[in-house]
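Why this split exists: single-chain examples teach little about how molecules sit against one another. For that reason, every record in the complexes split bundles all components of an assembly together and asks for one structure covering all of them. Below is a record exactly as it appears in the raw files.
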Amino acid sequence: MFYGLSGVRHNSYVSDSKLFPVPADRNAVVFFLLLGLAAPYLVSSLYLNSYILPWLIWTAAVLGLNLVTGWAGQLHLGYAAVMAVGAYSAVHAAKFGIPWEFALLIGGLASSVIGSLFAFAALRTKGLYLALTTLAMQFVMDWVLTHSPTIAGGSHASLQSPTFALLGQDITSDAGLYYVAFGWCVLVTIFMLNLRRTGLGRALVAVREKDFAAAILGVNSFYYKLVAFAASSFIAGVSGAILVATFYFLAAPEQFAVNVSIQVLAMVIVGGLGSILGSYLGAALILLMPGVVNQLFSLGANLLGLDLGIETLAHIPNAAYGALIVIFLMVEPLGLGKLYANVRDYLMVWPFDQLKK
Amino acid sequence: MKTKTYVKRLAAAAVMGLTSLSAANAAEDTIKFGMCYDLSKSYTFVTPQITQAAQDLATLTNMKGGIGGHEIEIIVQDHGNEPQRGIECYEKLKREGVFVFDMLSTPVSIAVLPRIMKDKNILIQSLVGRGDAADGSVFSQIFPVGPTYWGQAANDIAYIKEQSGGDMKGVKVGFAYLDYPFGQEPIEILKTLAEKEGFELLLYPVPLPGSDQASVWTKVRRDKPDYVVAWLLAGGHVVAAKEMKRNGFPISNYISVNWLNEVDIANIGAEAAIGLKRGTNVAGGQDLPIIQEILADVYGAGKGAGPVEKINDVYYNTGLAIYSAAFEAARLAVEQNGFPVTPDSMKAGYESIVDFDANGLFAPITVTADDHGGGGKTRIEMWDGKTWVPQQDWTAAYTDVIWDVVKESSSKFTVE
């Protein structure tokens, strides 16, 4: 059905390594791209700027973490700290009078440099030990932010971001801010889609599967780990800066604390390691579900006329949300991205797979 | 029987759901307050009492005919202390016609501040958020009615000065604080005052989350400070009390920040806590006209928003104080500019509050266009084993020093 493969023949390696071997996938991507472009005209500004905009930026960030965790196989528990480096450097640069285009780059590069330090830890440690090392770096960053007023912006630890502008044009409208987030997310997605098809991507996967086996094959695992950390940190830095510039409008340490690191990692794992669609779905589940479940429960309680106290109403959604994550991971341990792939694989051969039964 | 009523209710609710859209647009005859609170994470030690107080006070006010004949509507939503969800709550309620918000969380208040300023709505920010928001000339839309942490710390020092006979030479004051922005905030003020008054300031940082204070209090034993001012939260006080006992530091020389309530006292032990002091801008105990009225009229009629036992808590009084001031501002707004209340008239209402103390519930406040804190008066109260006993009159000391700090900090803020 929908994913007809008849008539699709690959006569060369180039055609075989096409971005979308199945036409239906490509059509779906084009459809969602158009939907994303038209979103400001389709959804209300509440949903556009309070739900979709942060979702897209977080998705870009999750894709970055997926690069280092899903592709290169390096567990990273200090991702929010790397985002913070980008956000703070970019805002400071913009406050200094540097145009935002360059400020974002500076943020990305600063993150890259600091993030690569994590890679040196990765050279020496693996698995859970690496996770703990990165977690320690997160705590170092938290400490630096709460103890250095010059970086964090005074005793209240909040650093205002100057008005976001691109090409000399101030961007303040809801739609404008949305398009910035959308553009960045699309850029990162295109990069990640293509990464799969390149030698770099294959080398990262080789390092993930077994780094010394990769070394025997001539893949310099240290070099590729470093590249993975640097590239993912760059994405993190720019995402953090865009998050502050278009959504929070100021940077505060709580926005990049250790719980945020755990949340981003949860987005990657719930979405599926190494899955691009999964990054979108994982970010949506972790970021938006608490609010949605909350509303569903208060609506339900209203409909049934149940008088649950406000505290109970605040806690039940948390439990439901936790249960939801457990259920999704039990149904498909490889994540939400794989759930979709399962459906797709089933539909690819349906109804012909019924014949042999 | 039961299912039948459920079905009826469902049907009624469905109809209401359909009509509610048009109804909401047509009947804007209530005054709405949006409480985006952390009901599930870090602030749960205080949010239930404060929401209960706000709802009870609204019920009482509505029973008496509301504000200028219009009912008060309190909308509560959880944000789990996450800036992202706080912003979501703000944006959602904003579109439902709410323009007075209260976040009761420092990270979330800070996160919504740029939006509040840009949209020209009103943010109630008592006891949380950035302290320099008291400067109304810069933070025109923010109303942190009550003391700043700076002012509170300065008032504590004034009390110690009073106790030391007006001369602080040779007096040692310890400052035990949680080592993150909440606890670090008063340090600068304390240093300035130490220089001014000539007392010795000893700093005791307590690592988060405040459950390990062994090293802090052995140091206290060595240094022998005359008083310890404590910027700790909830359980932190209980740990401190234990360590004080172990190290022979008298609990009567312990002056807590306002975040200490009857739950903590019960955990320390009501007897063991006798003599413990607490800086506050809200009177403790139930012997207050407004609480007696709520007990009689609201709980007497079975309309309380929560269990009646929870009223026996200074955080309940704190909630009443925040919302008495807010409702007073709304009342003045209706009186001056009529109904409906707008952000502008609400702001004007707040700024014309003069010497208001809700019958002795809290320190009298006078909010002006420049001072959105209302004067920042506090007093020291002591736990006597059963209730809180005031140790002095409401005072605001060293206001010039405080305002220097406020101005210095707020001058760096610009609306983008």
